[in-house]
């Protein structure tokens, strides 16, 4: 065994024993090749310990609207962008949920830009209530951004069980630089409201935006560990043609994979998606995400075709994997799709 291999083994043993010091986490984030594979192996062991059936949850996403009141520099859906705004009609959302349910889906992710208007939130409440009244065994996840505590409560009472609200960065300065219309304090207050109201909450970061350091990513890991969340994620920055950071370079996807593995090791019982941006960043990126400890896949066949180009989260040239590809991906990872929600 070389000195480097010995050092890697010792570091992984420390992390495995629960030593999540900043120095160890920073070291592990930089693992590559054999070191990275050893980190992934530990992450998969932790996943199996918490999910012994080795099942993966399938989510169907419906991107209900691209209207946004934020001014995020990394997103082309910001309020001053050039995209044609849309809101999918309520009956079309319900019809799509019915179609997806007939295909065996039980977890629906309703996603939109950040829109705190009373009319929009009431529309989402009706959509959630309509789906749950028809299919009480379905699980509804919302990703709508910052709302008031009262609005979150209305959505919870309508039947929404989970909410995804990423903190993006644990640095208040970076957060405000990337999202000048928002603050870290506001974001964390929303996260705390969601947790307090009993939502199963998901959060996480983005890697590769301007000014971010390795130390910032370590702090992101520690923040995920401190928050009482049920779901966690990390995504790579991909410059979109219509965003203010369009001339920036894509983030380091290996940092994302290692962040995912470390999140799994630190939080074995959480759900973690392997997102479509990973596939956009690297061939078989979503498969690598599963090998790094993820246990959720999102199937992008809930948004009608005529709206998909108007919801360019990462790029106008999006990766929107469908059912067949996701089934194949899960099988290649030696896993299986679960028949129902995992949490």
Describe the overall structure.
With 343 residues, the chain is an alpha/beta fold. It has helices at residues 3-16, 22-29, 33-50, 90-102, 118-134, 149-158, 172-178, 184-196, 214-226, 253-266, 276-281, 285-291, 305-308, 323-332, and strands at residues 55-65, 107-112, 139-143, 162-164, 200-207, 231-236, 273-274, 296-299, 336-337. Strands 1, 2, 3, 4, 5, 6, 7, 8 and 9 form a nine-stranded parallel beta sheet that branches. The longest helix is centred in the first third of the chain and has 18 residues, at 33-50.
Portion in beta strands? 5-15%
Overall domain count: 1
The CATH topology name reads TIM Barrel
Write down the secondary-structure element order. HHHEHEHEHEHHEHEHEHHEHHE
Average pLDDT confidence is 94
Number of strands: 9
Helix share, percent: 40-55%
Low-confidence spans: pLDDT under 50, at least 5 residues? none
- Output the CATH class name: Alpha Beta
- Please work out how many helical segments DSSP would assign: 14
Q: Strand pairing plus helix content: what structural class?
A: alpha/beta
Named at the architecture level, the CATH assignment is: Alpha-Beta Barrel
Gross geometry: globular
Calculate Rg over CA atoms: 19 Å
Q: Report the major sheet.
A: 9 strands, parallel
Beginning-to-end CA distance, first to last residue: 41 Å
Write the CATH homologous superfamily: Aldolase class I
